[in-house]
Amino acid sequence: MPEECARRNVSPAIVATRRKVIRESLKDGLRAWVEGRALQAQKRKADEMEAVEKNTVKTLVRRFAAKKLALERAEKINSARWGREVEMARHEEERRVMANGACPQPTRAHVLGLKKFWEGVIRAAG
Predict the structure, then answer these.
(1) Is 0.85 topped by the overall pTM?
(2) Tens of pLDDT, residues 27-40
(3) Nearest Cα residue to 75 out of 67, 83, 84
(4) How far is residue 95's CA from residue 98's CA, in Å, rounded to a whole number?
(5) Which DSSP string do the residues of 58-122 spell out, in sequence order?
(6) d(C-alpha 28, C-alpha 9), whole Å
(7) What average pLDDT does the structure give for the chain?
(8) Distance of alpha carbon 114 from its chain centroid, rounded?
(9) Dihedral of CA 77/81/83/88: which sign?
């Protein structure tokens, strides 16, 4: 017989029911705590993934820009000219840039558009 029944003359059925209620409330509290921890872990993981994606896109853009600059520098070194040839090469370069319709430096909107595109590609792959 439970000690609660022996001291106070309480029915064992009432004590059993009370213990069941206490046990269920404890289980409910633990379930809520576990669910809260799971949500926190999911949010943390989502935040980490976003940070990784942002760094990855940023890294891709930096690598692309660095490669492009390296190629441009190599072209300039290879085409070392002097005198009249330098002026003619400069005019030819300006004409080529104007023909493409592209700026030598991309606009902020263009860079953000590329960033958004690559983020979508990464999300689709992941």
Answers:
(1) no
(2) 999 999 999 999 99
(3) 67
(4) 5
(5) HHHHHHHHHHHHHHHHHHHHHT---THHHHHHHHHHHHHHHHHT--SS--HHHHHHHHHHHHHHH
(6) 30
(7) 81
(8) 16
(9) negative
